[in-house]
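Can anyone check this?
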Amino acid sequence: MSSEMSLAQANRLRAAAFEMLAIADELERSTPQRRSGLPFSETVSPRSLAALATKQFADRELRKSYINDAFFGEPAWDMLLYLFIKCSENKRAYKTAVTSASGVPHSTALRYLELLERDGVLIVEPAEGDKRVQLVSLTQKGSSAMANYLSRSLQIVRQGLPEIGVDRETSA
């Protein structure tokens, strides 16, 4: 199978997947029950938002197997994606898991956690049964911000990716 044929088939599968997500969104909007802790969106279902966050998180991990991850660095974003995924499952995350999801050294991740908490997008609390264990979750502000971003991102993808122009004189 040629690589052009493989790419064409992959694009057809992607288009079919987005079509199925759109149908699922319509069905879920017509159902009054919510199945996750995510904020409800009029245009995109919480399940689709969780799927997109999961895909973005997986894409970031996949990228590391091809390109040295030292060139990339968005530990706060990685933590927010991870927490959004946990929120979609109605779960809180252990602080150690969140810092691990960041992909940076523990001390660096802790600094980002503190900044995100100070900004009001997440909260770190001791576990009820064991005060040595700390749990992290998105606040309403953080959850809404992530849902709004992911919703808009998914809408853009469904409408078709915009053409990206490269100015040949300024590109290397």
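Reply from J.R.: I decoded it. The helical segments are 3-29, 46-64, 75-88, 95-101, 106-118, 140-159.
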